[in-house]
Design a protein that fits this description.
With 231 residues, the chain is of the alpha+beta class. It contains seven helices and seven strands. The longest helix is centred in the last third of the chain and has 32 residues, at 199-230.
Amino acid sequence: MIEKLFVDEGIKKVRLNEFFCKELERAGYGGMEVKRTPMGTQITVNVEKPGMIIGKDGRRIKRLTEEINKRQEMDNPQLDVQPIDMPDLCATLMANRLAKLIERGWHFRRAGRSMLQRIMDRGALGCEIIMTGKLKGPRGRMEKMVDGYIKHCGEVAEEVVDRGYAIAKVKSGIIGVQVWIVRSDAARPDAFQLVTINKEEKVEDKEDKAEVIKEQKVEEKENKEGKETKE
């Protein structure tokens, strides 16, 4: 029973995500977060243009909340809109943009490389783009483009890598687009820095250590002499 509840919750999140992708496409939809609270379900939507979702006097956001209530996907949903601080480093938003470029007729390699270069120019530590489907010819294939630092497995990949997925609908069929981004502020556990020390600083450090050792020896001698005199 518990496994079934988890599966049902996952299906509801997928349906809600597809609903937001269609409704908030023009606003630059960049993903969502769902949290359970005692008052209901808190849904945080990240978009590039929050003003388009809120609308005049909050009419559109009220309409979206009513639509989610009608679908009966979540209990007492409360919609919160947050702007994306760096749109070019949001994996979901970049995947949607890349899918739209392919639908407009761009060659998949040209679209992928331009998107990869754009993401890296914005300061990303690493990026990986994967396109699968009937890219060229009647048979399906996969095209991968990688640049910079990227992680694929482990806890580090879950914490550091931002992942986005979108679908491009073309005449030949459906092309899946995956975008993985490692932001510039990501905390990498395997990162290290080389520190250069000048020779003069080394000499000063050695002299300071020698002086400290001499002072310790003098204090030890004085303590021994003081004990002998008392005896």
